[in-house]
Amino acid sequence: MDLDEREEAYSPSSCIGGDYGPFIARYRTMSAEARSRIQAWREYAYGPAPSHRLDLFTPQDVTGHAIPVLVFFHGGYWQELSKDESSFAAPALVGAGAALAAVDYTLAPDASITEIVDECRQAVGWLHQQADELGIDPRRIVVSGNSAGAHLAAMVALPGWQRAAGLPVDLVRAAVLVSGIYDLAPLAGTSIDIPLGLTDAEVESMSPTRVALDGFPRSLVCWGEVETTEFKAQSWEFANDLTQAGTTCTVLEVPARNHFDVVLDLADPTADITRRVLSVL
Question: Is 165 exposed, middle or buried (0-12, 13-18, 19+ CB in 10 A)?
């Protein structure tokens, strides 16, 4: 594809008329409602920077019981949004006896893609190290995210970096990847790349489809029916790569959902995605 074709193919709002603002407003409203409804939630610092923060939502009556946690990384092409729009799934998860950790990270251009990935890995490592104090089960950490957040979740789930960080190689139990980008090459030179400044080395090392996947944890790769052809193709390709690497991988196209509202199904305890998430937790 030439540059103009890539610009359109990687513009998910092109499938919904161009205005994704109402969906962002729903993220924000539903997340604010979650913070008001759930008593047992708190903001924590997982590192020294102001952006190194996460909100942890837990059930109230879990004394003596370590609970599973879904770690959620927001989308926004690594340059928009925050944890404040990322806790909409908390009521459904907490109601089922699980925890939700909504993670902030430094946005581009203030951080490179490599630095953002490192921060997300640091956040999950911190949750594991603080598990006893937080009341979560260090053996049941599931990473998730939508769009760019799915890329980040995949990079956290990748094997190989954990040992150097003093963490177990099976740190992540499973990954739930929603409408993700797994090969960064098509973004190079587009308007999306302007704040990222992707290098050739980053395209290779920070693209989950371009690195070894042996040992990648059990995964759910899903997307909405109303997505661009390229977003669907990236998900299919990565799911195939995982299967070939020996990972148990389930694929799911959610009918009538688009790139922006498919992730909101996580707020519905009866939705197919949520039921599958709870089964891996």
Answer: middle
